[in-house]
């Protein structure tokens, strides 16, 4: 089965960013949009739905604020999506009941009990929001420093040498398919800023090439050109962007047909991957020009590490506060009713196939 894990999106200098709306509205899938509170059982519901279809190809999308919590499940063969549609990733039906339907997980809560604790809920929710605001400030500073580092890299980039390498690499990894239609690009988030650090989801069954580029721009330009060549040669690819950068940069590419993954590694993104083939992008920069900027680059590199650490620390604090909020809502949850809702959804999904 062709299964893969992703994040639904990521924290960014502008707040939570996600491309998942394209999955909902442009994929032709039928989507169940789950509405509910923290602790209402949305993640557990989606895990049970995924387990109910063990032999189906599926993609699982996790929450960047809690990377062990499920935010969405895509049953690919059935054309079914189940997604958490509450803040910060708010989704609303475009074609209600025809292509999307709202599922109210909040109906499984004892509302009178929650009303009695309304002041506590408001205070904890506001405290939680402040942590995310702090994270955004640090990511905004990180984005500025990373842009300065990228500018230094752009100044020294050997574009002709990089272009030649890109052409050779693409021919080796993507043999031309005669008579094939043009391929397509879909956007997913393989990496995100999380309380565990800048985290990359595990890759299952892929041959991984690690693109080591501390100046960002070489890998970004390589991935942009590579993706264009892939589409022209008839390959469908998955592009994962980095929302830390402004403007957004290409960070990773997956070619599911050939099980090939091109994964960036740099000052911000340092994925833990055991088996890979390294590609050192230092060869695509003019050494003399890099030396001219070495003091500035050294400062930027340290600043990136420190600012990312503070952004992650903010998310750690937010997670602890969110856990307190979950405890309040869990105390008011009717789990028997949630189980009945889960079984009704499983039955409804089966009826659509």
Question: Can you give a write-up of this model?
Answer:
With 353 residues, this protein is α/β, with parallel strands linked by helices. It folds into two domains: 4-109 and 334-351, no CATH class; 134-301, no CATH class. 43% of the residues lie in helices and 22% in strands. The protein is built from nine helices and 14 strands. It has helices spanning 20-26, 42-51, 111-115, 118-156, 159-173, 217-232, 287-292, 294-330, 335-351; strands spanning 4-7, 30-35, 58-63, 66-75, 80-84, 100-104, 185-187, 191-194, 197-200, 207-212, 237-242, 249-255, 260-265, 277-280. The strands form three sheets. A six-stranded mixed beta sheet has the order 1-3-4-5-2-6. Strands 7-11-12-13-10-14 form a six-stranded mixed beta sheet, covered by helices on one side. A two-stranded antiparallel sheet has the order 8-9. The radius of gyration is 22 Å and the shape is flat.
Quickly list its features.
353 residues, alpha/beta, 6-stranded mixed beta sheet, 9 helices
Note the run of SSEs as H and E. Answer: EHEHEEEEHHHEEEEHEEEEHHH
Approximate helicity band? 40-55%
Low-pLDDT runs:
none
- Strand segment tally: 14
Radius of gyration: 22 Å
Give the N-terminus to C-terminus distance in angstroms. 18 Å
Helix-strand category:
alpha/beta
